[in-house]
UniProtKB/TrEMBL annotation:
Keywords: ATP-binding, DNA damage, DNA recombination, DNA repair, DNA-binding, Helicase, Hydrolase, Isomerase, Nucleotide-binding. GO terms for molecular function: 3'-5' DNA helicase activity; ATP binding; ATP hydrolysis activity; DNA binding. This is ATP-dependent DNA helicase RecG. Pfam families: DEAD (PF00270), Helicase_C (PF00271), RecG_dom3_C (PF19833), RecG_wedge (PF17191). SUPFAM superfamilies: Nucleic acid-binding proteins, P-loop containing nucleoside triphosphate hydrolases. GO terms for biological process: DNA recombination; DNA repair. It is an enzyme of class 5 (isomerase). The keyword DNA repair applies. PROSITE patterns: HELICASE_ATP_BIND_1 (PS51192), HELICASE_CTER (PS51194). Belongs to the helicase family. RecG subfamily. The keyword Iron-sulfur does not apply. Its EC number is 5.6.2.4.
Length: 682
């Protein structure tokens, strides 16, 4: 019997109407219902009143006696007072704003009340009341599960339905985990853990049940990732190339600067991968300004020398052009021809570029998503590098690997990702980190100011720009308020144009025609425009060495990671640089975000605190992030379990008999469902 195939209407008491509302909670099958776990518990266990301290939260059962009295404050507020006999001790109970209880508190009735205990006055201020403790079997004298519900589904009803589902189907719950692991970690068996996670008899039992289910969830997730990783490693269809070490080193020696130690290390990691017959599949993390582009250039050069074409994919057209220019400067003197492929080429240009890509006279192709669209035929594509495509999920990344003749793949990202998230979202890849900035880089001096000092900010921009520096003024543009945001950007542009004359101010936003956008950006890069008012398009990667001032208007409307990225746009020429956050945040986390930015320029530190503030789901910015959504595991809490589950999963899928052993049939079935069949069969 497969519980994941039995509709929830098979549970007694769940009719069509309820099933519809359950559907809205994502519950369709019996399995869904059984694993719809509570997000907290009400502690309804009875307290020994004699031991309860003053001010504690307690729960007592007692018999109503005497009269109740009620006092009204205005029309809405009331205070109901009644008497309860608890283990021979008469106490007073106060209910605020629940006048309807008065008719139910008949003398002689037994009720349970939870609330705050005033020991001196023998008085209990009620927070929860159970009027019929005998009938409320899942609420009285126990930890009562609390679920997130909506529509006609009420928590009480759900408790009963879930209990009923266990009564009918509990014995069909199967154990997917290998016995050895269950024993190694002393895990509860699955059926028991599932039941006790809903209805624990105490906190410790609840914790053990949770530990078991978290391990299972993370283990199965990692099993999938590791099976994929195993498959990538096994399929040695990659390119075994001979690297021309001598010319690569000569290229590195001729760079205008020595590589940092961190750059050197990741270059070696990448070259080692490239020389192997297996396909490279690597994530390169490095804070903004840590120098990823030159690493990419070295890899592309090495790839070219071994006789292959390379591609670099970036998120925007401006970036594509800038990267093409940077790479061109480095590579063309060595006979490497760099071309750009964006959605902006004329039909004729596009035809020509495609032809050159196809016949191999283009050696390195830089472009946007256009690179992986239909109609692009590569010529011995050996290396694909992506910059800032961390929103690609596992599947999209896999598609890149399948281009051409199984090229090596390098993912670059400037978003520092805390380890737990990195090994979850990018778990099937190897990871390199540039954790060091080029020498002589000064940290960007960051200030947070309130909007009322705006005139001073304008004066400051003027001073810096008159001495030959340049400034960005960034204002947010979000879809929901796009129109107003555009007006704001426009107004800001006009204000600055007037206030800063004769300095030249440019305006750049996402709604502008591409040519126009280009023109503005080009003039800013050339120093022809000194101040650039922009919505967030400069966010990723654009390099203007003379830009030293970054002003972010309404900074509290940006996420931490984004603010950090923006800040990384200045000070790229060495020397002093400033970031001014103009904001009057209304929320506490808004204030906290401003504070974090003024306190540190370390991207990893910022990422860690961002994760704390927003939780893993939000970290990359909503759904398409490629981050899985877990039912019970919480990555900010369950880091250790994740590490252990990951190691266990890897060990298991690495066994040569993994796919043969019958005892692991549930795991084989699970992987098959995920599209990861036994690799030796295909
Ligand atoms: P990012 O990692 O943000 O893509 P870039 O590759 O754009 O960073 O590098 C930022 C700047 O630092 C560029 O101007 C680049 O020339 C310079 N740079 C890179 N590596 C070094 C180095 N080892 N020493 C000095 N400057 C460097
Ligand atoms: Mg970059």
């Amino acid at each position: 019997m497969k519980l994941s195939e039995i509709p929830v209407t098979q549970v007694a008491g769940v009719g069509e109407k309820r099933a519809e509302d359950l559907h809205r909670l994502g519950i369709e099958t019996v399995e869904d219902l059984l694993t719809y776990f509570p997000f907290r518990y009400d502690d309804n266990r009875l307290t020994d009143l004699k031991r309860a301290g003053h001010g504690e939260r307690i729960t007592v059962r007692g018999e109503v006696f005497g009269e109740t009295s009620i006092r009204w404050y205005g029309r809405k507020k009331s205070r109901l007072s009644g008497k309860l006999m608890v283990d021979g001790l008469p106490i007073t109970v106060i209910w605020f704003n629940q006048p309807f209880l008065r008719d139910k508190l008949l003398p002689g009735k037994t009720i349970i009340v939870a609330g705050k205990w005033d020991r001196r006055r023998l008085q209990l201020t009620a927070e929860r009341t159970l009027l019929d403790p005998r009938r409320q079997g899942f609420e009285a004298d126990r930890l009562a599960p609390v679920y997130s519900v909506s529509g006609s589904i009420k928590v009480q009803w759900l408790r009963k339905a879930i209990h009923q589902a266990f009564v009918q189907f509990g014995r069909h719950i199967e154990e997917p985990l290998p016995e050895a692991l269950v024993r190694r970690y002393r895990l509860m068996d699955r059926a028991k853990a599932m039941y006790l996670l809903h209805f624990p008899r105490g906190w410790e039992e609840g914790r053990q049940a949770r530990r078991r289910m978290v391990y299972e969830e993370l283990f199965l997730y990692e099993l999938k990732i590791m099976a994929l990783r195993r498959r990538i490693r096994r399929e040695s269809r990659g390119i075994a190339r001979k690297l021309d070490r001598k010319r690569i080193e000569a290229f590195i020696d001729a760079l205008p600067f020595p590589l940092t130690r961190a750059q050197r290390r990741v270059v070696d990691e990448i070259l080692t991968d490239m020389a192997k017959e297996e396909q490279m599949y690597r994530l390169l993390q490095g804070d903004v300004g840590s120098g990823k582009t030159v690493v990419a250039a070295i890899a592309l050069y090495a790839n070219h020398l071994s006789g292959y074409q390379g591609a670099l994919m970036v998120p925007t057209e401006i970036l594509a052009e800038q990267h093409a220019e940077t790479l061109g400067k480095l590579l063309e003197p060595r006979g490497v021809r760099v071309v750009t492929l964006t959605g902006r080429l004329s039909a004729r240009q596009r035809r020509e570029v495609l032809r050159d890509i196809g016949n191999g006279s283009a050696h390195v192709v830089v472009g946007t998503h256009a690179l992986i669209q239909e109609g692009v035929e590569y010529h011995r594509l050996g290396l694909v590098i992506t910059d800032e495509q961390h929103r690609f999920g596992v599947k999209q990344r896999a598609r890149l690997r399948e281009k051409g003749e199984s090229p090596d793949v390098l993912f670059m990202t400037a978003t520092p990702i805390p380890r737990t998230l990195a090994i979850t979202a990018f778990g099937e890849m190897d990871v390199s980190v540039i954790d060091e900035m080029p020498k002589g880089r000064q940290p960007v001096e960051t200030h947070w100011v309130k909007p009322d000092v705006w005139p001073r900010v304008i004066r400051f921009i003027g001073e810096r720009c008159r001495s030959g520096e340049q400034a960005y003024v960034i204002c947010p543009l979000i879809e929901e308020s796009e129109k107003m945001d555009l007006q704001n950007a426009q107004a800001l542009y006009e204000e600055l144009t007037k206030a800063l004359a004769p300095l030249r101010v440019g305006l750049l936003h996402g709604k502008m025609a591409p040519d126009h956008k280009d023109e503005v950006m080009r003039r800013f890069a050339a120093g022809d425009v000194q101040v650039l008012v922009s919505t967030t398009v400069v966010e990723v990667g654009v390099n203007v060495p003379r830009a030293t001032v970054m002003v972010i208007y309404d900074a509290d409307r940006f996420g931490l990671a984004q603010l950090h990225q923006l800040r990384g746009r200045v000070g790229r020429g060495g020397g002093e640089a400033f970031c001014i956050l103009v904001a009057d945040p209304k929320s506490e986390t808004g204030v906290e975000r401003m504070r974090i930015l003024t306190e540190t320029v370390d991207g990893f530190e910022i990422a860690r605190r961002d994760l704390e503030l927003r939780g893993p789901g939000e970290f990359f910015g909503v759904k398409q992030s490629g981050m899985p959504e877990f039912r019970i595991a919480d990555l900010s809490r369950d880091e250790r379990i994740l590490e252990v589950a990951r190691a266990d999963a890897w060990e298991l899928v690495s066994r040569s008999d993994f796919w043969e052993r019958k005892e692991w049939a549930p795991l084989h079935a699970f992987l098959k469902k995920e599209g990861l069949d036994n690799p030796s069969l295909d």
